[in-house]
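Q: I'm a student working through a structural biology exercise. My instructor gave each of us a protein and asked us to get a predicted structure, then write a short paragraph describing it. Mine is Hemin import ATP-binding protein HmuV. I'm not confident about reading structure output yet, so if you can add a plain explanation after the tokens, that would really help. Here is the sequence I was given:
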Amino acid sequence: MLALEHAVLARGPRVILPDADLAIRPGEVLALLGPNGAGKSTLLKALSGELAPASGRAALDGRDLKDWPAAALARRRSVLPQHNHLAFGFAVEDVVALGRSAHIDHAARADDQRAITGALTAVGLASFAARDYRKLSGGEQQRVHLARALAQIWEEGRPTEPRYLLLDEPVSNLDPAYQQTVLRTARLMAERGCGVVISLHDLNLAAAFADRVLLIAEGRFVAEGTPAEVLTPQQAGAVYGLPMLALRHPETGAPVLLPAMGEAPRA
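A: Happy to help. First, here is the predicted structure for Hemin import ATP-binding protein HmuV. I'll explain a few features afterward.
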């Protein structure tokens, strides 16, 4: 299991999250929600091993992330950061193939190709394999990078060991149809046995696609549980300083939160 154990997460002298205690469960989607600056990206960096806790620890299968060899850790967890830049004229499938670099000497070339094809298919870009990455739209490029992250931990069938996919605001700047594609892909990976952590700003997308929600504000975990338990007008309204109303999705029964138009946001 991937976990933070009483981790103090800081950027330089500034403590962002003073007591992060969180376990990522294989087979589920966990959505991180909270205002800008709440600590969502910091939490993901700690879970990925990019940011070492000032105290406490981040661990995979009971072993500190800092003690894992880089390639071995890369085969178990994959990260899609908020910003991805690539200036070279690579074909789409070559960009996705970058995700397989940790599998050199650990997988046959046929396995690598199956992973690349499977990842592109999962994000709806199988027909784009030979296209020039630079000529794609911004949203298409974002989906290529998601495919690269998927290919990094891809294994046919259910993984022999739990894998983890960490996505930092993957649906920003995407239209509603592409947002659905990305989040359905996250659900697909969870159904394949991966633990998926995804930071979002859209409360209703989190309610629709996440198994578990963590609401973060001002350096603390405000609430954690199912979307129905966490995404109440009272809790979400207090965190965002915005009066809210709650409805139910007519098909799924998931909570749908709307701003109360008669009241001004709280400063």
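A: Here are two points you could use in your paragraph. DSSP finds nine helices and twelve strands in the chain. Residues 122 and 201 are 23 Å apart (CA to CA). It's a good idea to check both against the output above yourself.
Q: Great, thank you!
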